[in-house]
Amino acid sequence: MRLTSFKGRLLFALITLIVLVLVGLGIIIGELVKSYYLNALHSRIEKEMNIVINQTEREPSFNELRSELFDELSDVLETRITILNEDTDIVYDSGQAVSDVNHDLMLDEIDQSLPGPSNGIVRFPADTDDTSFYYISNVQTGSESGYVVLAAAFDNLENVYRQIWLILAITLGAALGMIIYIGARITNQYTKPIESATEVAIQLAKGNYKARTFEDRADETGMLSNAINILARNLQEMVSEQSVQQDRLKTLIENMGSGLIMIDKQGYIVLVNRPFLNFFHSDLEDVLNESYVSVFKNKQVNALAEEVFLTEQRVRKQILIEEAFPQKHLEVYGAPIIGERSAWQGIVLVFHDISELKKLEQMRKDFVANVSHEVKTPITSIKGFTETLLDGAMNDKGALESFLQIIAKESDRLQMLIQDLLELSRVEQQGFKLNLGQVDIVETLNDVAVMLEQKADQKNASIQLDLETPLVIEGDADRLKQVFINLLTNALTYSYAGQDIVVKSKKLKNKIQLQFIDQGIGMEKEELSRIFERFYRVDKARSRNSGGTGLGLAIVKHIIEVHNGEIAVESEPEKGTVFTITLPIKVNK
Ligand SMILES: Nc1ncnc2c1ncn2[C@@H]1O[C@H](COP(=O)(O)OP(=O)(O)OP(=O)(O)O)[C@@H](O)[C@H]1O
Ligand SMILES: [Mg+2]
User: Fold this and answer.
1) How far apart, in whole angstroms, are the C-alpha atoms of residue 404 and residue 110?
2) Contact (Cβ atoms closer than 8 angstroms) between residue 76 and residue 68
3) What are residue 580's phi and psi, to 5 degrees?
4) Which residue's alpha carbon is at the smallest distance from atom 29 of ligand 1?
5) Which ligand 1 atom minimizes the distance to the CA of 516?
6) pLDDT score for 316
7) Which fold has domain 433-584?
8) What is the membrane topology listed in the Swiss-Prot or TrEMBL record (predicted)?
9) Mean pLDDT, to the nearest integer, of 335-356?
């Protein structure tokens, strides 16, 4: 691994350096010891030479040398002693220590360069190995002069050298071992924090921002560990911050309510949110990373995207998605994404669902059309009869009276219509406030029943109140009265003669329930969901004849809703209808 190789390299360099130094040191020490040893040997031999010269000088002449004495000396000194006369003839030779062949060679050499008395001791090697030497000196015996030659063989020199080297090798080897051991420990100490820091750095690079290293040292490596840990902490914070941001952005995109889609500059979809997928009933995997041309089945959407790509301008368009059920009106907003330094990165499309708005717009149009239509009929009739009267019909007393009655009836209708419209707009007004108080439902219903007695009598019917007492809730007395009048009037209007109407009550927890039951003409199931719409009448002709405007139930529904109540209807043609209203005892609970 990289780390061990770092440590290895460090150790290797250190060891090589130390080995080189130790070997160099060894060679120098070896040579020093060697030359010191050799010098010691030479000076010993030279001292011996002096002994031999002294001895020789004590002899009377070269021919009368006491050879046994010199034999003894040669033995003690372990050197070969040779004495030559002036003519370099051998007068004595102990014949030991140095081989004869070399000895003869040496004699030849003396012949060539005889040392004079002033030369002292002349030394030269006897062989190429430097293991034997000749020491030659001038000597006087009586009046004769001659030469003393000592030959010493340092046969054990090799052994001595080997020992020197062995000792050196052992000491230096031991030193090397110790240095390696200590060096390894020291490098370990320094490389361990670096290894750990490196390991953490690798983990960080891999994205594991939880990795931490030890901070147990106060030196540079400690600072490194500390810095790495700070880096890791900062990275972790940054990443968690980033993931929080990303989560927020994701939540925002997913929950923005509008569809969103991002297309890169190559035309591939890189981002899409759930509302978009819902609008187009598609799955994420069919959309993401696909070309937008293949994803947008709708030609208009495709064209819009193309337009943004071509013009690099913002585009806003309303589009009808017919494939969707129910049909959807979308407002599509397309914009180019221009990044930093005006780099073109693609486009973004936002889809707002404006179906509800469209529906409201349609309702408003319908409303205006309905109102005009409702107003037109009585006005036309009034205008027609007035013109007829003015044209001379007013002279006919019978016609005059009947026409005026029609005009009065139509004016009533108009008045009623306008009153209802005013009422509705007042109730629907934002910020409409109820005039809250304690309302005795039993009392109110009794009042309404009395008010409608005449109308009931005309139908030969009666209103029966089957109520629990007491029945008091919080509410707006006048508005609730209006609700009861509307519901009971409807029940009377849409019943046949002789069919009684019943109002029942039920107390629930925190609520009361009232049911308005008739056995009249009833309604088809399909109608029920629409009767609370403004101007909606089940059978237009019949209802208009009854003088209705189709606003009554719309007003009722509104009043119930501002009381936080609910209204429901059940009906069966020719069997009857039941309107059920539920009102809370306290409005704001
Ligand atoms: N009890 C009922 N039985 C049968 N049909 C009913 C009953 N109540 C309402 N309807 C139907 O619902 C329609 C809407 O009722 P709504 O009270 O809103 O209008 P309206 O009675 O025609 O006019 P007005 O605004 O004068 O009340 C009526 O035209 C009628 O066809
Ligand atoms: Mg009505």
Assistant:
1) 182
2) no
3) -115, 120
4) 537
5) 1
6) 94
7) Heat Shock Protein 90 (3.30.565)
8) Multi-pass membrane protein
9) 89
- The Cβ of residue 585 has, within 10 Å, a number of other Cβ atoms equal to 16
Residue 2, pLDDT score: 53
Beta partners for 123? 135
Ligand 1 touching residue 495 (CB < 6 A): no
**Span 123-134, average pLDDT:** 71
**What's the CATH number for 359-426?**
1.10.287.130
DSSP state letter for 296: -
Rounded-to-integer distance, Cα 55 and Cα 137, Å: 13
Where are the extended beta strands (E) located within 393-490? 437-440, 463-466, 472-475
- The pLDDT of 12-38, averaged and rounded, is 86
Query: Looking at residue 3, what is its pLDDT?
Result: 53
The mean-pLDDT minimum among 43-47, 99-103, 489-493, 557-561 falls in 99-103
**Whether the Cβ atoms of residue 355 and residue 523 lie closer than 8 Å to each other:** no
- Max avg pLDDT among 89-93, 95-99, 227-231: 227-231
Report the pLDDT value the prediction gives residue 144, as an integer from 0 to 100.
80
- Closest residue by Cα to atom 10, ligand 1, is 490
- The answer to whether the peptide bond before residue 470 is cis (omega within 30 degrees of 0) is yes
228 falls in which pLDDT band (50, 70, 90)? confident
- Fold match flag (359-426 vs 433-584): no
Residue 389 pLDDT: 92
* Domain 256-353, CATH among 3.40.50.300, 3.30.450.20, 1.20.1260.10, 2.30.40.10: 3.30.450.20
Q: Which atom of ligand 1 is nearest to the CA of 576?
A: 3
Domain extents in the chain: 256-353, 359-426, 433-584
pLDDT of residue 587: 87
d(CA 541, CA 550): 12
Structure tokens at 158: 């090799």
Is there a contact between 463 and 500 (Cβ–Cβ < 8 Å)? yes
Q: How far is CA 367 from CA 129, 166, 274, 303, in A?
A: 134, 121, 35, 35
pLDDT above 90 (res 572): yes
Q: Is the CB of 576 under 6 A from ligand 1?
A: no
State how far the Cα of 232 lies from the Cα of 209, in Å rounded to an integer: 6
Cα distance between residue 141 and residue 58, in whole Å: 7
Does the beta carbon of 420 sit less than 6 angstroms from any atom of ligand 1? yes
For residue 548 and ligand 1, the question of a CB distance below 6 A is answered with: yes
CB atoms within 10 A of CB 423: 18
403-421 pLDDT, tens digit per residue, is 999 999 999 989 988 998 8
Asked whether the beta carbons of 531 and 579 are under 8 A apart, the reply is no
Q: What is the mean pLDDT of residues 35-47?
A: 86
Residue 254's Cβ-side half-sphere holds a number of Cα atoms within 13 Å equal to: 7
Residues in CB range of 539: below 8 A, 6 or more apart: none
Beta partners for residue 439, in sequence order: 473
Query: How is 173-220 classified by DSSP, letter by letter?
Result: HHHHHHHHHHHHHHHHHHHHHHHHHHHHHHHHHHT-TT-------SSH
Q: How confident is the model at residue 29 (pLDDT cuts 50, 70, 90)?
A: confident
